[in-house]
Design a protein that fits this description.
By secondary structure, this protein is an alpha/beta fold. It folds into three domains: 18-123, no CATH class; 144-205, no CATH class; 211-495, no CATH class. It has 20 helices and seven strands. A hairpin with a 2-residue loop joins β1 and β2 (12-16).
Amino acid sequence: MPAVEIKDIGTGSAMILPGNTSDFKISSFVPDLYGLDFCREQGIPVLFRPGSCPASGASDTAAAFDYLTSVYSDIKNVTASGMIMAGYPDYKPLAEVMKRKGITFSQTEFIKQVGAAGFAKTMYPMVIPLHSLTRDEVISRSISRLQITERFVRAVHERSVRLIMVRPYDLNMGGRLEVFIEDLASTSGSIKARGYEFGWPSNIGIWPDSIPGALACGITLIFCGWFYIVRLKGGEEERVGIRLLSFLILLSLIISAGMWKVSLLARVLGGLCGALAASEAALSALESYKKPVLGAIKGLFIVTAGGLAIATFYGTTMAALRLTPFSGVKLTLLLPPLLVLVHDLRRRVHPESLPEIINRPAVWGELFLIGIMMLAMLVMALRSDNVSNVPTWEVAFREFMERTLLVRPRTKEFLIGYPALVFYWYVVRKGWIPGYREAVRIVSVLAFSSAVNTFCHFHTLLSLSVIRTINGWWLGLLIGVIAVAVINYAVVPMSKKLTREIHS
């Protein structure tokens, strides 16, 4: 702060700071020089957190940091401290110093610090994702030590976070050092078990935009959209002429070029591309009840191809660092069930049309199913947050699945969607519950929506997304087959036996 006045008072000096008490309560003045000296002596790379100071402008902040890093060259990374990024709102001076010296910036996940997101964009591509838990968050949410470890492991394995800030959290009175060492060993052991090595991370390079990715998205969008229209008209068995095929290919090329050149068009069509791919995969699998194995394979192929097309085009370095949002994340989950419902009502897959359903009195069974589905959606919404609490037994189960399968499949797929698909095949072949099959169809769509949605999380390694999709597919189908076998060979015979005994 250039406006500081220094006055001699007796044998000492007084520094008169240019500001008021309320400003200084949230200000930072002096770095941890003892800590910096220790790291320099031990050769430890430093993650430095410059605090904000309202009395210091962006140029002064940059000059101070430039001087500090010339003395302490072990400072390798910077992350925001407090509620406001140092130097805000002028990012350029500090960013220029950091880029000149090769110092990266870490944007902390799920923490909204004023100016941090804008500074990260200014520092692009020298950005490294960081995961941290604050003391207040741990205490207010009653997060256990096991859950803390699970949070860090998930950040590394599922979201490609390459820097985690671990600190003692005052969860145990006494023996803090021993407890902290145990937590470090537990976290590092779990991360190493997944094949990772420890070291100082570097930022990822800039990936070039993918023209083949744009072409793949255009083909997926046009052909899946055309398949859906054909299904609405009931023309699945009609042959495709060479003129129509040529027209679809030409239209795919035009759409691909538009997505490549017009960013607004790309943002609008991204979610629609994923939703149409998920809908086509679901309808292909649902309508293959006579050949369920073939239907399951077709569904897996379509969601994987569609997901890879989206990831190839939209999975840029900016997207991987979460500096630009992808508009299709929620759309790929919400739109496919609606598209399948419209298809089923138009094609009379459900025995009643929409006007007939609206005009007749509600059936108690339908109300019960609606209540169950709404409750399930509420639970999914509450648990979709990355900071939600998870029971200890579930943390242990997740750890077991991660170490066994390499990547844990999504619950929506292996416990809900794919088992519902197998159950739907079973009841259709048996001719049971025609009035309630639509609910089962909609639930099964969730598996395919979730599978495509997996590829829309561009911060996750693409190989892990593929493995996760396959794991959810085979495990969900296996659980569905086991459930259907129990119903067919245990529940149904027992029900018939009880019915005969009651009537006799």
